[in-house]
Design brief:
single chain; 153 residues; mainly beta; Glucose Permease (Domain IIA); 8-stranded antiparallel sheet; 3-stranded antiparallel sheet; 2 helices; 40% strand; transport; sugar transport; PTS glucose transporter subunit IIA; PTS_EIIA_1_perm; transferase
Length: 153
């Protein structure tokens, strides 16, 4: 079976999960992956990183399931659940079928930062064995929505 390509959902700079200020992500408790520090100038469009079905949709996070059962979590900022959805506009709902590059959420990373929360966006291969995940983008590099981020074997 071919590896699943996971694309960047936002524009910004790639960050290693170990450098994310949240032990659930930095410790890879929910799974391996990478994070993206969003570019405040690039706008707040968040696109689907894979083709699949929306299985969870919250203003601050969503999970997509691919046809072969792989799960991908995109989390918009850290502790942003505390914002109660303010500043997030959803363009998809649970059970929607989505394609890579489709806009799922609009948000304002600068407002997240202004609220005292990190705007970094972890992109996680849920329940994946770390050895099955290849990081296609190096920490510190600039990335645009739709650029290759991860490959899940």
């Amino acid at each position: 079976m071919a590896a699943l390509s996971v694309l960047a959902p936002v524009a910004g700079t790639v960050v290693a999960l170990a450098d994310v200020d949240d032990p659930v992500f930095s410790g890879e408790i929910v799974g391996p992956g990478l994070a993206i520090e969003p570019d405040p100038v690039a706008g707040g469009r968040v696109v689907a990183p894979v083709a699949g079905t929306v299985v969870k949709m919250h203003p601050h996070a969503f999970v997509l399931a691919t046809d072969d059962g792989k799960g991908v979590l995109v989390h918009l900022g850290i502790n942003t659940v505390q914002m109660g959805g303010e500043g997030f506009t959803l363009h998809a709902t649970e059970q929607d079928r989505v394609e890579p590059g489709q806009v799922l959420v609009e948000w304002d990373p600068a407002a997240v930062t202004a609220s005292g929360r990190p705007a970094v966006c972890p992109v996680i291969a849920l329940d994946a064995d770390p050895s099955a995940v290849e990081r296609l983008a190096a920490p510190g590099t600039a990335i645009a929505p739709g650029d290759p981020l991860l490959a899940i074997g």
